[in-house]
Design a protein that fits this description.
Elements lengths: L11 E5 L16 E5 L6 H15 L9 E5 L8 H9 L2 E5 L5 H4 L1 H5 L1 H18 L8 H12 L2 H11 L27
Parallel strand pairs: 1-2, 3-4
Protein name: DDE-1 domain-containing protein
Organism: Tegillarca granosa
Length: about 190
């Protein structure tokens, strides 16, 4: 399944645990994947697995010679020599967003994670009201419904426009967002 321009990849979940149980993905949307880690957080191995298996299945490539630009944050699990070598071999240009700028440059931070969280919370409250004895196994169905709602093609295109990434517009983000902060100065005289 290839996505249209402005479409989103199916979600990929990281659950806390020792071994992946298929019931964790019950009720998920088509193409959803997942894995587990001891902490429940991503790490370098999980990120590499995501890029090797999940990511290439759903990215749209018009031409094999045309590189793909991958924008992402500089989380330590996203930085490794192996990742750079992988990207080179797959004709992918990696662009790590500068630290502390994702709130103005990362399209998903700009306009999608907020609506996703709001919709997910609403879905959770509705589920608890309808079935007070529900288990954690319905996380995927609730999150997938929220994900599809928040990451619609129109919403994604709007986020890329707002960040100035596509269409390219360097004036889309006010330069004030990149100025160093001013430390508090003491007005006390000694």
């Amino acid at each position: 399944m290839r996505q249209k321009q402005g479409g989103c990849l199916p979600p990929y979940f990281v659950f806390k645990g020792q071994g992946m149980r298929q019931e964790l993905l019950d009720g998920c949307s088509e193409g959803t994947g997942g894995t587990v880690s001891e902490s429940g957080w991503s790490n370098s191995d999980i990120f590499q697995h995501y890029l090797d298996i999940h990511f290439p299945t759903y990215i749209q490539k018009r031409d094999e010679n045309q590189p793909i630009l991958l924008l992402y944050d500089g989380h330590r699990s996203h930085l490794s020599i192996g990742l750079i070598n992988w990207a080179k071999s797959h004709n992918i240009i990696l662009f790590v967003l500068p630290a502390h700028t994702s709130h103005v440059l990362q399209p998903l931070d700009l306009g999608r994670f907020g609506p996703f969280q709001k919709k997910y919370n609403s879905e959770c409250h509705k589920s608890i009201r309808q079935n007070p004895s529900s288990t954690t196994y319905n996380i995927c169905s609730l999150a997938c419904r929220s994900y599809i709602h928040a990451l619609s093609p129109a919403n994604l295109q709007s986020s890329f426009r707002k960040s100035g990434i596509y269409p390219y517009n360097p004036s889309a983000v006010d330069e004030i967002n990149f100025k160093p902060s001013v430390a508090f100065k003491s007005s006390c005289q000694r």
